[in-house]
Amino acid sequence: MIATLTEQFVPFANRLEAQGAHPIFIDIFASYYEQLLAGQTGLISEESIEPVDSLPDAERLPADLQAIGREALERTAVIKLNGGLGTGMGLEQAKSLLPVKQGLTFLDVIARQAQQINVPLLLMNSFATEADTLEALASYANLPYPPATFVQNKEPKIRQADLMPVDWPENPELEWCPPGHGDLYASLVISGMLDKLLDDGFEYAFISNSDNLGAVVDPAILGYFVDNELPFMMEVADRTEMDKKGGHLAQRAEDGQLVLRESAQCPNEDEAAFQDISRHKYFNTNNLWLNLVALQEVMEERSNMLGLPLIRNSKTVDPRDGGSTAVYQLETAMGSAISVFAGAQAIRVPRSRFAPVKKTDDLLAVRSDAYLLTDDYQIVFNPAHVSGNLVVELDGRYYKFVNDLDAHFPEGIPSLLNCTRLRVQGEVVFGANVSLVGDVEICNKSGRLVTIPAGSVLSGRHLFE
Prior knowledge:
This protein folds into two domains: 7-353, Spore Coat Polysaccharide Biosynthesis Protein SpsA, Chain A (Alpha-Beta Complex); 360-464, Hexapeptide repeat proteins (UDP N-Acetylglucosamine Acyltransferase, domain 1), CATH 2.160.10. It is an alpha/beta fold and 465 residues long. It has a seven-stranded mixed β-sheet, sandwiched between helices. It contains 13 helices and 25 strands. Strand 5 (121-125), helix 5 (130-137) and strand 6 form a beta-alpha-beta unit. 23% of the residues lie in helices and 26% in strands. The longest helix has 15 residues, at 23-37.
């Protein structure tokens, strides 16, 4: 426990200790709570940073880095963030357990990718996903490197009115939240996973979100990381208009150190600059490369408190009830460690390495023939696609949740191999073996259920009134 606890923090310490929280995490949470009491918001002003103009490009790396990366694979582990429940798509279990391609779940695909290159797979679960994930992993227990899990910490939500722990008797679980994926580093230490990896001879880790189907180990990128003896490296991609609200890469004006600025860290008056994609050109894919030895050294130097920038998130205690008690959640971002490691770098990667499935629109596309599952269990855009680009927009009133998506495509997903854009408004059910060609818009304003007959070939706009 930290040497001196303020009187205001004692109720938090009591709750954390009652939940069995590790002393290291109690210290970490206490430090962020003290920042909150001191009025710190974690905001990063535009005047304190400068844009990043150019970076090494993963698409132009020297060929010899492939061999360096392949040799380093035997000392590399894969870590996936697996704490999400997928509630935005109506799921009540780990999102990674959702079938995504040919009957395989995200977790199946991830586990088989790791098996193909013979590297250990570690999953950082939340207190909400651990049990379901362990059950699903049972079938992989006999692998040379059976997937392993560790659980991230959880913290009390803070009532905004008086900065005390919130009480919510209707559902006490809602009094707690995860501290953001920046908790990864402390969780690796607390769980003993960092020591185990180092003891077993592993030096590097590739870290990404479990729902990012583009996040696979690339030997050339690993070779660049190893050859340059970097402690930390972030993969970034070119920002487009659809990325303008996501976290972007910048550098501190005072010393040039790379930093990550999330939207929650942007002052209101700097919002225009934050969203200016011509000024801040790169966004964080949340694909990270980590030198495990460097992490251990920094954690030991800092008494296991990495000191990631604070993110003060304003929420309601029940996220589904905007009228419930206003709370703060104190979070950190995993990528913000780029500001902590001296010599940390970023590398520009192609957009294909950022292919998250966040909505049913994404899921429909990936399940279609516009994407392929390769022999080494990578899910890639089909090279036979007519244009190399596909946009899917489904009416959230009828397709937002996975069970709704399945109900409206009972005979399978239409062929999208020759489709560049699919937009569906209103309620429509698709029959078997439907093919969509070009830019397709289906708009049902009739007030009745419309069924697209089996075997239909559709292009252009179709209006039902």
